[in-house]
Amino acid sequence: RPREAERRRAASTRAPGKAAEGAGGAEGGLGAGQKMSWAMQCHGCLPWGSWTRLCGSQPGRRAARCVYLCTASGPGAAGSCFHRKILHVGGTSLPSRSCVRYKGGSQENRAQRSSSHHGLDHLRNVASSDAIKKHQKSLSAWFSNQPNEERQFGPSFSLDAIHVDPVIRESSLEQILKPSPDLTIQHQLQQPCRQVISLQNLFDVDACGRQVKNVVLYGTVGTGKSTLIKKMVVDWCHGLLPRFELVIPFSCEDLSHSHVPISLRRLITKKYQHLRDVVPLLGSSNLKVLFILNGLERLNLDFRLAGTELCCDANEPVPPSAIVVNLLRKYLLPEASIIVTTRPSAVRRIPGKYVGRYAEICGFSDTNLQKLYFQLRLSQPGCDGENSVASRSGEQDNLVEMLSRNLERQNQIAAACFLPSYCWLVCTTLHFLYFTRTVPPSQTLSGIYTSFLRLNFSGEVLDSTDPTKISMMKYVAKTVGKLAHEGVMSRKTSFTEEDLQQCFEVEMKTESELNQLEVFRSDVFRFFLTPCVQPGKEHTFVFTIPAMQEYLAALYVVLGEKKTLVQKVGKEVSEIIGKVSEDAAVVLSIISKVLPLRFLPVLFNLLKMFPRFFSRLSGKGRDTIARTMAEELFKEEDYYNDDVLDQINSSILGVEGPMRHPDEAADDEVFELFPIFMGGILSRRNRAILEQLGCSIKNLAAFEIAKAMKKTVIRNSRKGLPPSELMDYLFFLHEFQNERFTAEAVRSLRTVNLSSVKMTPLKCCVLASVMGSTSHEVEELNLTSCNLDASSLRTLFPVLLRCKFLHLQLNSLGPDACKEIRDLLLHDKCAVSNLRLGNNPIGEQGAQYLAEALAGNRSLTHLSLLHTALGDRGVELLAQHLAENQQLQELNLGYNSLTDTAALHVVEVAKKHATLDKVHLYFNDISEDGKRALDSLRMDRDGVRALVFLTAGTDVSDYWSSILNVVHKNLPFWDRERVRQHLTIILQDLESSRRQTVNPWRKAKFLRVESEVKKMLGKLQHGTL
């Protein structure tokens, strides 16, 4: 026993290395069952997933060895002894520690494995970054594509260059659901309590400090929701939206057409294939993702659990609507941010608990935003074609300035431009009016309005929850079109609340119709109607743009919505009987073979007779449309208004001058665009666009209306029309876009009188296009006082070639224009025989071009250069080339400051001319000696009549009346003081000649002419002439 106690003391004081060795030997004796039991005891201390690794170290498993040990102190000596043991596994000794992790292999292998994992992560990040860059490039290319309607603004036009952010105001569900007492945009914009928020701050924390993940951005039609989202995506592609690393936009219209279950990851890669490498990271990384859901009103969402099941797996196929619901629930990808755009009527489809912020797009509430938009739009380089940079810039600046002044007057146009869509329409219309230079014009006014509606209503269904699925534009044509038509027929532009109720609510019979009306009032009403800003009419509504009333009225008529009760009932009955007769035909044919009933064929023919009768009734309806068009186009009370293009220009830019006094009676309303829009809507292009909007106009209907128009429109056009009405008729033919109809209509126009019509580049293009539909000769084209210049003549060149009598007086035709006239007269197909260029600043340089034209022309017989500032040098240039001309019969050089030498020279040349027998030289600076010299060259002596004065020796000139008529017509454009001086000299000459004659008949003639001159002088002095 003493020796045994001594051995124990020695064992307790043994060296640590020996103790470890002893412990190892003891552990080496443990069996496999004992090892497993020990491992089970330690399993509660192992980390998640360690159990499988520990099992992998069991005998028989030849894989990489890995052991996790977590020791706990046991009670008594057994526990302390356990701590001192060394676990030996597979011949490998492990030191004892509180927590031991062992992976098979050397330190070098561990480093290699760590570096390989890091390399894979790096490669994955690089691949994702490259994929996102490709995604950005693809999105930028897609969203930067502009529709055809935007290409007119020039090749440099881009969304980045012209975008102006609309006003966005933070809202709440209570404000949305609260009924508004006013349906106008102005009422909503004038609420000061609502906070303005920028697009970049939509996902900032809310007032309670909570992070916002879901944003609902809503606005009525035309406020710019889609354009804002497009700009947002483009900004992210260009790195201007750093808050998000990935943006994934979805069109809810696109999603609404698919009902096949699909997973979110498959949906993303289906739409954006570049994101194949990025999709696996969604939900498993800290990637900041933004989903954009544009046009949520297109989707029918059901947030009830019974309607849409919960889904948190991005790989599970579910309907697209279920994906949207679970994204908004934050059950699927809860860390993702979502922005939803929708119309006001669909906001309540998303429960408020799933929305972090409501924001309303309110358009351009500040006129400065409107001015900025117009400045950017109208200042795009290249938007006005071929003009020089200086003239282009000047004209654009002038347009912007006039438009800004009109906005500052708080006119109706300012109320309309609260909507960015109408700002677009204003700019597009101005661009059409001022910068059209091509023949034929690339656009029509009705095409602009149709495209405008396509941009705002394309594919839009009024209410996606309604089973009828009526298109929004079709509903507008039936309801607002009816209101517009009634206003046109009664010459009314403002409407009371009673008018609106009578139009919208009188035919409501079902719950569906009531729901449609509510959606219309919430989403669309403000797009077409707004309160009148005219004093005294604040409680009435007007159309946002006046021309829109005429367009919708025309659409209402052309679509055939204007029907009598007999026509409405007859159409329904005809359709029913038409369907029944097809089935009855088979039955009756069988019965007639079995039973000898002779009346059955008669009954069958009666069934088929009603649809035929109704088709004739429909044909009469189309005749009515044609008659309506003709009656409205040629209304005599509109004969002396401005042409429609000038009316549109005035409605946009205003009328310069003092404003109308509130008590002053307003002018009568005119609706001359109404029949023009009717013709324009029938064009093939516009019918194709309206078909996309759900407003179908069949080819047969358009053909029959055009056929009926030949009996009415062309017959009425043969009557003499005033210049402005004739311009409207030509514009109607351009809008109609029917070449055969236009050619037949133009052949009946032998005389075209457009005097005093301001021929803008657009009107010149319209005239050239319409007249170019045929090649017949035009007897007379009167373009007197039409603001023509050299570019106008270039545009009208093919038309001028075919005119025999051409009036170009009282325009701004200088030397450059004379160069164009020279080319015209030298053309081998020139048919001009009588050319009047009076009252144009031709000058000496212009005379040089005209002299060259006279030398080579073979058609001209009469040329008037009255009051063209030729001077002596200009007339001498003409005289030098006059001998080379063989057809000229009459030359008017009056009022050109000619002296005796130049006058005598041109008359001497005229004496030798084969055909020239009359030269007008009155109102020139010719002395008394010069008059006597010219009088000596009278026709009975030398064959030339030189019309110098009202007197011819002691007699009155045979042309005194024509001379005074010329003076009377040109007084508004001549220097009145100089005319007064000439009339005084004429009066003195008349009195002197009267005293010299003794013939009482001649004295009476002198007294008559003197009285006419004295009347003219008196009116001139009193300013009444």
UniProtKB/TrEMBL annotation:
InterPro entries: Leu-rich_rpt, LRR_dom_sf, NACHT_NTPase, NLR, NLRX1_C, P-loop_NTPase. The keyword Translocase does not apply. Keywords: ATP-binding, Host-virus interaction, Immunity, Innate immunity, Leucine-rich repeat, Membrane, Mitochondrion, Mitochondrion outer membrane, Nucleotide-binding, Repeat, Transit peptide. It is found in: Mitochondrion outer membrane. GO terms for biological process: innate immune response; negative regulation of canonical NF-kappaB signal transduction; negative regulation of inflammatory response; negative regulation of innate immune response; negative regulation of interferon-beta production; negative regulation of interleukin-6 production; negative regulation of macrophage cytokine production; negative regulation of RIG-I signaling pathway. Its main location: mitochondrion. One of its GO terms (cellular component) is mitochondrion. One of its GO terms (molecular function) is ATP binding. The keyword Amino-acid biosynthesis does not apply. It holds the Pfam family NLRX1_C. Residues 1-28 are annotated as: Disordered. Gene3D superfamilies: P-loop containing nucleotide triphosphate hydrolases, Ribonuclease Inhibitor. Residues 213-346 form the NACHT domain. Residues 12-21 have a biased composition (Low complexity). Participates in antiviral signaling. Acts as a negative regulator of MAVS-mediated antiviral responses, through the inhibition of the virus-induced RLH (RIG-like helicase)-MAVS interaction. Instead, promotes autophagy by interacting with TUFM and subsequently recruiting the autophagy-related proteins ATG5 and ATG12. Also regulates MAVS-dependent NLRP3 inflammasome activation to attenuate apoptosis. Has no inhibitory function on NF-kappa-B signaling pathway, but enhances NF-kappa-B and JUN N-terminal kinase dependent signaling through the production of reactive oxygen species. PANTHER family: NACHT, LRR AND CARD DOMAINS-CONTAINING (PTHR24106). Homohexamer. Interacts with MAVS. Interacts with TUFM. This is NLR family member X1. The lineage of its organism: Eukaryota, Metazoa, Chordata, Craniata, Vertebrata. The gene is NLRX1.
